[in-house]
Amino acid sequence: MIGRHRHLIGLEPLSREEIVGVLQLAISMKEVLRRPIKKVPTLRGKAVVNLFFEASTRTRTSFETAAKILSADALNWTSASSSVTKGETLVDTARNIEAMHPDVLVIRHPAGGAPQLVADHVSCAVVSAGDGAHEHPSQGLLDLYTLAEHFSGVRGKAVGEKGAAPNFGSIAGKTIAIVGDVSHSRVARSDLHGFTKLGARVRVCGPPTMIPQGMETLGATVHYQLREAVEGADAVVMLRIQHERIGDPLIPGTREYSKFWGLNEKKAAEWLTPGCVILHPGPVNRGVELAPEVADGARSVILDQVENGVAIRMAILYLLAGGAQGAHTSAAEGAARS
Amino acid sequence: MNGETIFIEGGRVIDPASGTDGVRTVVLRDGRIAEVAERWERPRDVRAIDARGRWVVPGLVDLHVHLREPGQEYKETVETGARAAVAGGFTAVCAMPNTSPVNDNASVTELMLARAAAAGLARVYPVGCISRGLKGEELAEYGELKSAGCVALSDDGKPVTSSALMRRALEYARAFELPVTVHEEDLGLVGKGVMNEGPTATRLGLKGIPTASEEVMVLRDIALAELTGGRLHVAHLSSAGSVRAVRDAKRRGLRVSAEATPHHLTLTDEDVARSRYDTSFKMNPPLRSAADVRAVREGLADGTIDCIATDHAPHSAVEKDLEFEAAANGIVGLETAFAVCLALVREGALSETRLVEAFTIAAARAFGLPGGTLARGAPADVAILDPGLTWRCDPGRFRSKGRNSPWKDALLVGRCTHTLVGGRLVHELDRGEP
Amino acid sequence: MNSDGIERALKRMAREIVERARGGELAIVGIRRGGVHLAERLRRDLEEATGQELPLGTLDIALYRDDLSERASAPVVGPTDIRFSVTGKTIVLVDDVLYTGRTVRAALDELVDFGRPRRVLLAVLVDRGGRELPIAPDMVGARLEVPEAEQVEVQLVEAGAAEDQVIVKPRGNA
Predict the structure, then answer these.
(1) In the predicted model, is pLDDT for residue C75 greater than 90?
(2) Number of structural domains, chain C?
(3) By three-state DSSP, how is residue B331 classified?
(4) How much is the pTM?
(5) ∠ at Cα B266 (B264, B272), nearest 5°?
(6) Is A121 among the domain residues?
(7) What is the ipTM of this complex?
(8) How many Cβ atoms are within 10 Å of A327's Cβ, its own excluded?
(9) B378 and B32 in contact (C-beta within 8 Å)?
(10) Which CATH number covers residue A185?
(11) CA gap A148, A173 in Å, rounded
């Protein structure tokens, strides 16, 4: 359980406390990640199925790594090897997988709402690994973790050390810009919910064709000029420009996009405050939204995001796979003591 | 028709066409309304229906239903659809032509009518295609369709994308005095949209359909109605801009009418979020914003929108138990329409008289259908409605084969208890079924 | 057991550890949460006794529990902090109360995931009996016979108690 929730479909339904609960747990998970033997037995005998209807090597690998470190059995079911192409519906597929008794179903799907549909039809816990342009909750959480590490000045310190734990209150009051194709981005939505719930001010920026309606109602300010969005920001999340959007016709081409909404070293040096860091959900289109010098530069926390992603996903799996439905808590608590 | 005489006694008769509103006895004889009087002596052996505490209204008329026969009988048949109709108080329904094969020729029209006659429930009025094969390329044979029994023309489910074809349809239909009823959407603007464009679609990450996609077509067709003098009927109007356009067209004296559905009068796009992507909230046009719903209600109240039509669109789990974006559009509505719209009266958005009018005479007039009134000599099509009956909507008990209702499990107030078509009792609510 | 009793017990345990470690390279590891403050006190006593600085660590055994599937929700995980190599050292594992032995089993499993100690000694302030696993302490502050319906609680000033004491009370109103 994550607070009141059996599933993780998005960050929108989570309270601030529930989000911080996952982040807090990720501190311990990150410590496990850095041990000489990167394995704990906690989810031994539990099965995690990664049900991916979209190619996503990094997210799938991250969930798979997280499951394995926790000693769960991770099984991958990708659309290429499934019977989806033979006309089986998503509900059928989910029920078939459920018949194999997984404890957690991690699902990536091109349709917004697909994880919810699956959750409505199966009894195991469901984790969204990204659905359409809806949400990508684990990405939102790992971005929060990465930002908190930076804002509390603990980047690079040994985990477990006293004073080395990120303080998640440090996000409050910060200004974070999200730049790119917000309309098609599930990362943008999860980030927006997570950032605002933890008290940050959020600016979204991109060509007007890529900014969907209602951003203000979600608590963000809208900017069409990159400079206006990133100046004075404490962090900038650069979104990936997907090639299929070009000529959609949302933008005329990558060259113009890069010129007006891409971030290069010159713009970074002139417009960003010295402490401003750059996040990117990956994979980076080098030279389009981010110049290589910026992606690999001192401001980039992109690799921190990858490492923290594993810790966050360990925390999610632990909370959702751990615990049996309907077990007698009090009896178990007693037997477990000393 | 049936020669039996039936007295409906003690009910409140609301018949906007004749201006009646009060407790009356309605006498049905030989399939017609024989009398509507404050007191009428009932002979001993004559059958009576006790309607005390209920409304006695003309049988409801629905200009827009999908009966799925021929071709998709697993979703609905003329018989099950007609059964759902009379259960909801509807005595006449207009069946859209997007069947398989489509209703663009007399043989399909005749088949629908034969099935309806065999069922002997609601009156079924087929609507013929605007374009042959619903392809939007050439005109269907309106003369043949009219002779076979079609009462209007529509390519429902699809817009007529060619302005030139639409112009010719409005012109050619004049020869047969057939209204042309249009499903308005600019497919380019709709794109891959699956719900109303706006903050809710943004939150849900679903592609949006802007209201402008409907409005540009409504405005185009009003211009074409003006050009041709044709009879334009705008189906399932959903946006504030469309209401404005129709209001303006009517003010200018054009022959334009419009309908709105119970769902566009009561539900908003936020219900898609509240229901967590429930595909029973997916239809076309999509549920719009609260501001649009307000405008549609105002349009219905002031007569800009003539009538209420359900757009009853049964689907099976095969089409609905899917990802929101993959699911079929449409919901069933015949068995819930009265209760859903009665809420508008409770909320003060509509008078009781206007509600009954929008369900009966206003609809009948839009397509030139008989009925819609309890005037002496009119067909004995009557619905008895209990405005206080509270019931739990259980789609499992629908007469329709469709279970795709956004009101599943909702507590509804108002229900049809008796329906008479041509003086024959074709529906009576089971006492065990509240 | 009062403050003085606890103080004396720890001093005695420290002496026993020095004796038993016999020149091995010592390190102290407290089991969260009850063993952490006791481990700190033991280290102080041991450093006084040996005149050497000793590494101190903390283990949180939540991820090594054997009852995850029997619980309604996943147990809270606290920080584990072992920032020295355990390989070759004599590790003194410290907890407040020894009961079923399951916590110590989990702690041993976790400890060996950090390396291969030369030896592990178990020091507990209270052994209340009731073992469910073949585990025995090396150093014990006090042995108490406590019925199953009751629980032993070690209260320390570091954890916010008014004074150090060991109390026995009915289970369930912790």
Answers:
(1) no
(2) 1
(3) strand
(4) 0.91
(5) 75
(6) yes
(7) 0.90
(8) 15
(9) yes
(10) 3.40.50.1370
(11) 12
